[in-house]
Amino acid sequence: QIPKTAPAVVFEKINGPIVYKEDHPVTQPQDLKPGEVLVKIECTGVCHTDLHAWKGDWPMPPKQPLVGGHEGAGHIVAIADGTTTTFKVGDAVGIKWLADSCLNCENCRMGAEMTCSLAQCHGYTVDGSFQRYAVSYARHCTPIPDGLPLEVAAPVLCAGVTVWKAIKEANCKPGDWLVVSGAGGGLGHLAVQYATAIGLRVVGIDTGDDKKKLLDQYGADAFIDFKNFRDEGALIKEVKRVCGGEGPHAAVIASAGGAAYNDALEYIRPHGSLVAVGLPPDTDIKANVFWTVFRNVRIIGSYVGNRQDAIEALDFALRGKVKPQIVTEPLKNLEDVYKRMESGGIPGRIVLKC
Ligand code: 8ID
Ligand code: ZN
């Protein structure tokens, strides 16, 4: 009952046409290699990373042609012969950015699967979730708990996992101030919720009334519209003011634009952490050595999360502590979603029905 073809969105070349196809070939169960599973994707989030991939924004280009997408939620419909797994056909699973890793190297042994030299990434080095049937790897699929709707799980599989891990890296304790920059976006709006869920005091930075309204629901202490603080040093002053004068204990930068990095090193308090998450192209963090040392600040890169981070991130959603803001649309809308994303016009996440 597995069709020979099914819908998918494919691009042949970076910046080339984004093509919705009804008849994309489906890998048949007998063609799966040991370790692989075939997942019938019900829905998929659209992450800004997918847009960076299509635009070729990063130093290593994606595979081409590419089926993007790495927030896929669906059910296992086939498991390759010779695969050792506890998953069964019919299980609800997520396919996240990290599609596979060796699980044997030092990185994997430490739970740092994202830096495994053999890591594969859905929607980048292998095809991802912008299609109805996706090939994934049993050992890295994420079990989706009973009772969690798949369209709610989808944005957690990248946005949620990533910010949950980033907040852990920030190493704050309850009551500490955390700034989330890019707070109205897919990652940011979840970061605000994970942070408030663990008792942090949160300040969101983004722009526009829609994003402010969204964040007002989550118990953030303040929203700062960065467009109102354009003068040199004005945003730094405002962030410090709302965080009681000294600045936040940490900042998670989840913005897709580079400007958000400029002020963060100055507004965090001494011993504070800047957690770099957003991946704008060609952007440097300029840290003055004297002030970095003198103020004891920490600059931390945080790249997705491991299998355990994914399970923890979904558990917050299952318990209703984190509620992704989602609008669902058909898969064929992907190109239009990219246009809206580029203009910063999407509060929360768009989830596509496959
Ligand atoms: O593992 C990782 N580190 C990881 C995982 C997933 C995604 C990194 N990312 C990266 C993406 O590739 C992207 O660069 O995080 C960034 C944000 O992804 P997203 O949340 O999926 O993007 P979005 O929904 O478009 O939200 C971005 C928000 O940033 C705001 C926009 O208004 C939008 O709400 N923003 C921008 I653009 N410039 C800003 C600024 N100067 C800003 N917010 C505050 N200050
Ligand atoms: Zn992502």
From TrEMBL:
GO molecular function per UniProt: alcohol dehydrogenase (NAD+) activity; metal ion binding
Segments forming domain Enoyl reductase (ER): 16-352
Enzyme Commission identifier(s): 1.1.1.1
InterPro entries, sorted: ADH-like_C, ADH-like_N, ER, GroES-like_sf, NAD(P)-bd_dom_sf
Pfam families to which the protein is assigned, alphabetical: ADH_N, ADH_zinc_N
Domain of life: Eukaryota
Any one Gene Ontology cellular component term annotated for this protein: cytoplasm
Record carries keyword NAD: yes
Keywords from the named record: Metal-binding, NAD, Oxidoreductase, Zinc
Cofactor(s) needed: Zn(2+)
Entry similarity comment: Belongs to the zinc-containing alcohol dehydrogenase family.
PANTHER family the UniProt entry points to: ALCOHOL DEHYDROGENASE 1-RELATED (PTHR42940:SF3)
Annotated protein name in UniProt: alcohol dehydrogenase
Source organism of the structure: Rhodotorula taiwanensis
